[in-house]
Specification:
Recoverin, domain 1; mainly alpha; elongated; 2 strands; two-stranded antiparallel ribbon
Length: about 325
């Protein structure tokens, strides 16, 4: 290109076609630019939307992760707490077992048992107070014992004669050691066993007491006790014939009426014995239970019978012949 052409301006074309082309080109260029701008804007908007969506998703994911971590932490704390209390309970049971030698029962059962024992203890204490009060209503203030006069007053209140065998049975129940006297401990023993803390209860208990004594397993002990109860002196081993006759009728008369009457008749007329000892007393009880009466066919004098019974049988046989 020449210097001249470089310095001169561009040639202006007056052709409408050229102008149209230029305008068209310019318009096309403008449109393309506008389209490009719009596309860029749309792309930017899309990018922004994508970014917003990504941000929202990231936030949701973060929130879900945080919630999951919190739930796991709560479960872990609960598990640790449960294990702690389990171990604590095991230690308490072991401790209770070492102390008592038995596994610890539940607190509910333990409380119920404690309440029952407490109520039972209070009731027993009240019963004992009434038994003691009843004792002192008959006891001699100076001796602190229920003496023969007190026993007579008791017999009057329960409507039983003082010579009735049931008074002897009551003494047996009390394990009384001295004839005609009851001390406080003996009184407590008998009345607690009979569940009698009033006069009316004691009166009602007498029929059951008599049934108890009449049982074969108890009657042997009662029969033996009756003899010991009449030993009123220290180191006394025997009882005079007159007292024995009364005692036999009192203790055995209702069961072995014929044998007792015959033996009492013999004791009153014989002159060899002034007293009866325990061996002879128990021997007669065995005689009543084992020997056929009145034929005596199974009595064998060669067996270990007290001599007084051999003499009694000879006397009976002589009477029969």
């Amino acid at each position: 290109m020449t210097r001249e052409s470089q310095t001169k301006g561009p040639k202006i074309c007056n052709s409408p076609i050229c102008c149209d082309k230029i305008q068209s080109s310019s318009s096309s260029s403008s449109s393309s630019s506008s389209s490009s701008s719009s596309s860029s804007s749309s792309s930017s908007s899309s990018s922004s939307s994508s970014s917003s969506s990504s941000s929202s998703s990231s936030s949701s994911s973060s929130s879900s992760s945080s919630s999951s971590s919190s739930s796991l932490l709560s479960l872990l704390i609960s598990f640790i707490a449960i294990q702690f209390f389990k171990n604590k309970n095991k230690k308490m049971r072991r401790s209770a077992t070492r102390k008592t030698g038995q596994p610890n029962s539940t607190s509910v059962n333990s409380s119920a048992v404690d309440l029952f024992r407490s109520a039972s203890s209070r009731a027993s204490s009240k019963e004992l107070e009434r038994i003691d009060s009843l004792f002192y209503s008959y006891a001699n203030p100076s001796s602190g014992l229920i003496d023969p006069e007190g026993i007579e007053n008791l017999c009057s209140d329960i409507e039983v004669d003082h010579t009735d065998v049931r008074i002897l049975m009551l003494a047996w129940k009390m394990k009384s050691e001295k004839q005609g006297y009851f001390n406080l401990d003996e009184w407590r023993t008998g009345l607690k066993s009979l569940r009698a803390d009033t006069v009316s209860k004691l009166k009602k208990a007498l029929p059951d007491l008599e049934k108890e004594v009449r049982r074969p397993s108890n009657f042997v002990d009662f029969y033996s006790y009756a003899f010991r109860y009449c030993l009123t002196e220290e180191k006394q081993k025997s009882i005079d014939i007159e007292s024995i006759c009364e005692l036999l009728d009192l203790v055995l008369g209702s069961q072995f009426h014929s044998q007792v009457n015959a033996f009492v008749d013999y004791l009153k007329i014989q002159t060899d014995y002034k007293v009866i000892n325990m061996d002879q007393w128990m021997g007669f009880f065995r005689f009543c239970n084992e020997i056929s009466y009145p034929d005596l066919i199974n009595y064998d004098s060669e067996l270990a019978w007290p001599l007084i019974l051999d003499n009694f049988v000879e006397w009976l046989q002589a009477k029969q012949n």
